[in-house]
Amino acid sequence: MNQGTSERDPERGSATLWAVGLMAVLMAATMVIVYVGMARVARHRGQSAADLSALAAASRALQGQEPACTAASEVATANGAQLERCTINEDATADVWVSFPFTAPAAATGVTRRPHYHARAGPVSPPIHPTPSGQTP
């Protein structure tokens, strides 16, 4: 290399630019994966809150609509959800609708959404026990 010339290699430093670009792409991909994961977790938590609320309502369905729906509301609140609707049907099944807040990260929208989730629970028919052969139930 001549020390008296000021000529530089035009490719010098291009690896740094490629590395910075690759890091930006990897960061963007990581952020998308994290955001999708957050949305999936929120969805599962919302559906779990609906399922547990329906089970709580079904456990008190024979006591009437008000005690059953009060139990469902308590369970929904304990799980971070809000009871939107609760009905006890004639066959003692409970239908429960809850909403669960989800706030997308600020980089995406920063808006809180409240998707709704539905669950149904009810009594199970009594178990059928086999009888020894030759005996009638």
Characterization of the model:
This protein is of the alpha+beta class and 137 residues long. It has a domain at 27-121. It contains 2 helices and 5 strands. Strands 1-2-5 form a 3-stranded antiparallel sheet, covered by helices on one side. The chain has a two-stranded antiparallel ribbon with strand order 3-4. Helix 1 packs antiparallel against helix 2 (65-78). The longest helix has 46 residues, at 14-59. The chain is elongated, with a radius of gyration of 29 Å.
Strand content: 15-25%
Number of helices: 2
**What would you call the shape?**
elongated
Distance between the termini: 103 Å
CA radius of gyration: 29 Å
The largest pleated sheet is described as:
3 strands, antiparallel
Residue-averaged pLDDT, rounded?
85
- By DSSP, the count of extended strands is 5
Regions with pLDDT < 50 over 5+ consecutive residues? Answer: none
| Helix and strand sequence | HHEEEEE
Spatial order of the strands forming the largest sheet: 1-2-5
Structural class: alpha+beta
State the helical fraction.
40-55%
Labels describing this entry:
single chain, 137 residues, alpha+beta, three-stranded antiparallel β-sheet, two-stranded antiparallel ribbon, elongated, Rv3654c-like, transmembrane helix
